[in-house]
Amino acid sequence: KAFQDSIDNFLVERFKDKKITVVAGIEARGFIFGPSIALALAAKFVPLRKPKKLPGEVIFEEYVLEYGTDWLEMHVGAVQEGDRALVVDDLIATGGTLCAAIKLLERAGAKVVECACIIEIPELKGSVACSG
Predict the structure, then answer these.
(1) Residue 119: its H or E element
(2) Which of 22, 33, 65, 113 is the most exposed place for a label (fewest CB within 10 A)?
(3) Is 79 helix (H, G, I), strand (E, B) or coil?
(4) Which domains are present in the chain?
(5) Which of 55-69, 73-87, 117-131 has the lowest mean pLDDT?
(6) 41 with 20: CB under 8 angstroms?
(7) Would strands 58-65 and 68-75 be described as parallel, antiparallel, or unpaired?
(8) Is 66 annotated as catalytic?
(9) Catalytic entry in 57, 66, 81, 123
(10) Quick one: what percent of the chain has pLDDT higher than 90?
(11) Distance of alpha carbon 59 from the chain centroid
């Protein structure tokens, strides 16, 4: 009950009038909140996964880590031109993963309306990195 109340009161209420059609959850903890938010908003849930975890044809976006690179993958056709997306993750630090998620969704034709992260490490300025 507490989990559902927190979803309803803190997240769904904020996004209910934004006409969200897709909630994209970043692996792994974006999968905890994303499906519940999608269900409450009558939107579809799209998982954004680490490399080589999705079957079938995928598109990907690479991003820089402290010591190398990584990428996020999404199924081809998971979002459509004109979809209105909400990106969900547990934490934003440097913003690399979140920025990659935004680019991936936009490249597939979605408009990213907003991002929802439960925790931010403000000293690392990740939300600033993704706001452009």
Answers:
(1) strand 111-120
(2) 65
(3) coil
(4) 2-129 (3.40.50.2020)
(5) 117-131
(6) yes
(7) antiparallel
(8) yes
(9) 66
(10) 78
(11) 15
CA–CA gap between residue 5 and residue 98 (Å, rounded): 25
- Cα separation of 126 and 104, whole Å? 17
pLDDT-derived band of residue 5, with 50, 70 and 90 as boundaries? confident
Tokens of 20: 């969200």
**What span, in angstroms and rounded, lies between the C-alpha atoms of 83 and 95?**
23
Mean pLDDT of 87-96: 94
Whether the Cβ atoms of residue 35 and residue 42 lie closer than 8 Å to each other? no
Question: Which helix H or strand E contains 116, and what residues bound it?
Answer: strand 111-120
**Structural element, H or E, at residue 43:** none
| The pLDDT of residue 35 | 95
E runs forming strands in 33-97: 44-48, 58-65, 68-75, 84-92
Of the residues 29, 84, 106, 120, which is catalytic? Answer: 29
> What mean pLDDT comes out for the span 12-37?
94
Helices (H), the chain: 2-6, 13-15, 30-41, 96-107, 126-129
DSSP category for residue 49: B
